[in-house]
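Standup notes, structure subgroup. Blocker cleared on the zinc ion input:
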Amino acid sequence: MTDPRINPSILAADFVNMQSELARIASADFVHVDVMDNHFVPNLTFGPQMVGRIQETSPIPLDVHLMIDDPDRWAPEYAELGAASVTFHLEAAADAVSLARRLRAIGARAGVAVKPGTSVEGLFDLLPEFDQILVMTVEPGFGGQSFMPETMPKLRALAEQVRRRGAQVWLQVDGGIGASTIAQAAEAGADTFVAGSAVFGADDPERAIAGLRATASHPH
Ligand code: DX5
Ligand code: ZN
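Run returned:
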């Protein structure tokens, strides 16, 4: 497989010391930024102003995960801020394809996310429209939850379609990813791994990233 990407989630970081927190994950591929609006999910984090400042100060590109209602209206702003990747939820989007096209036109990678209960069959014919598909491995809203193995069949089905169609889309997992679960997700076909508590909760985040990367590279 291609080299796995490890994207630490700053939901598990100290929000008021963001610059020093970012310095602890210098070997990460992307910084995963969880935007929550207290409507799509029952939790609230931050919006474009904070993400804009993180974008200006982070040495690592941003992987923005929007857990918000009406992404058709709000997501392009995050691409305009310079985020490398902007992922919105399929359940919340009115027109996922035209939104993805707008994100790409601004210059961001376009991602679409699905909650554990949302099926992915409808995405099979749309793979060329997206740069990333995020299969949530917990119910979105909070860090520190347990990985849901029952989401793996969706990942396998997507990975099979990506292979069969020669699509260029990355397959991301988010939620409960750590030393004991990342192999399952890698084996099922994920290539991009979000980890919050497993990285920022570790004494040595860089070692945690290296360990996750090594396991994801050789999951068997
Ligand atoms: C959950 C967020 C995740 C969260 C993952 O809704 O989308 O990105 O930070 O945290 P862990 O890795 O602790 O499950
Ligand atoms: Zn996330």
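Discussed briefly. Residues 9, 32, 34, 65, 174, 194 surround zinc ion (ligand 2) (CB under 6 Å).
Next: hand off to the docking folks.
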